[in-house]
Amino acid sequence: MTQSNFLLPFAFENQVAHGAIVQVEAGVAEFFAHRPYSEAVGRLLREALAAMPLFTTHMRFEGRINLQFQGDRRMELLVAQIDHHLNARAMAKAPADLNGSFTELLYGGILALLMEPSTEGVPASQALVLIEGDSLSQALEGYFERSEQLPTLIRLAVRGDRIAGFMLQRMPLQSAQGSQDDWEHLWTLASTLTPDELLDVEPTRLLDRLFHEDAVRVFDARPVQVVCRCSRAGISRMLLSLGQKEVDEILAEQGRVSVTCEFCGQEHVFTPHDAHELFKAADESGPEDDIRH
Ligand SMILES: [Zn+2]
Description:
CATH class of the largest domain: Alpha Beta
Bound molecules: zinc ion
Mean pLDDT: 91
Strand content: 25-35%
Number of helices: 11
Helix content: 25-40%
Largest sheet: 6 strands, antiparallel
Structural class: alpha+beta
Number of domains: 2
Number of strands: 14
Shape: elongated
Low-confidence stretches: 289-293
């Protein structure tokens, strides 16, 4: 496998557990280029980005998974999102100089995992747990244990802008076979995984190395992208829904309309001329089109 950004799902033939490996590097530096975060916050964001693709391996809907850490300490918010095409992004609200351990930044806050299907009629769902553990991966393990009753081992590794994640999860009880001993055997093997191995070893080799005596079925690798969904077209839609009067007021006050994306930090600027053209085009194509495009 030469591809640099991918998710590799796997399952054990004995139906005791399944899991996934993710390794990502391309796009990470570019994604964070406009958002200067402190070292500690930048690291947590990269860990959250590495974790998101792991959660999609058993996603049964089209749409988005939204992970939020709401701190009650100095770190206000960390959000990571991924859609069913495996486009991932993350942002944090925290003082620029905020540093400290995971516990100091987020322990005791709330972890929320939101499932947001894009298909009409499929309801969104949300689960909340208290943030516990010494690391982001432990907090996520706690989420699966307490909210979904699924014993889970999660490892996340970061080196510069190279990020990687590993998940081993007990199959849901109704479909699980094998004994608790079988699960503990796999858990013990997986827990020997080091951050360097996770970052550097090609994933099928990594699975061989960890579980060489157990029959593992490896599924097709899927590409992962670290990108922001914000676009000039999206901001244009927002301005149209705001209405010409409101936009004219902003232009009169500030000379231009500037919208900065809170995820990637990119600034989208509309001059009076741009705004004029935008509303003119919308008038010409009719109001129906404004909503659809
Ligand atoms: Zn953006």
